[in-house]
Amino acid sequence: MAEIKASMAGNVWKVLVNEGDEVKAGEDVIILESMKMEIPIAAEENGIVKKIHIQEGDFVNDSDVLVETE
């Protein structure tokens, strides 16, 4: 199981995937907003989204787990 983590602190602006979706390495899965900038968070490897730990509007810290893939 792989974890997709936040690369910085910010608000979850958009969740681009749903549980059960197939994702490819490099595909954006979450968009964070910090200091009025949009920061895309991409999958690091191919997989299936097993669990989404956050929802739009949540605040996350650096290294928080956002999504688990398998």
Describe this structure in words.
This protein is mainly beta and 70 residues long. 0% of the residues lie in helices and 54% in strands. The chain contains no helices and 8 strands. The strands form 2 sheets. A 4-stranded antiparallel sheet has the order 1-8-6-3, with no helix packed on it. A hairpin with a 2-residue loop joins strand 4 and strand 5. The N and C termini lie close together (5 Å). This is Acetyl-CoA carboxylase.
Strand order across the largest sheet:
1-8-6-3
Q: Architecture, according to CATH?
A: Beta Barrel
Q: Write the CATH homologous superfamily.
A: RNA polymerase II/Efflux pump adaptor protein, barrel-sandwich hybrid domain
Largest sheet: 4 strands, antiparallel
Spatial shape: globular
Enter the CATH topology name: OB fold (Dihydrolipoamide Acetyltransferase, E2P)
Domains (count): 1
Low-confidence stretches: none
Strand content: over 45%
Average of per-residue pLDDT values: 97
Question: How many beta-strand elements?
Answer: 8
Distance between the termini: 5 Å
Rg (C-alpha, Å): 11 Å
Can you give the helix content as a percent range? Answer: under 10%
- In quaternary terms, these chains amount to single chain
So how many helices?
A: 0
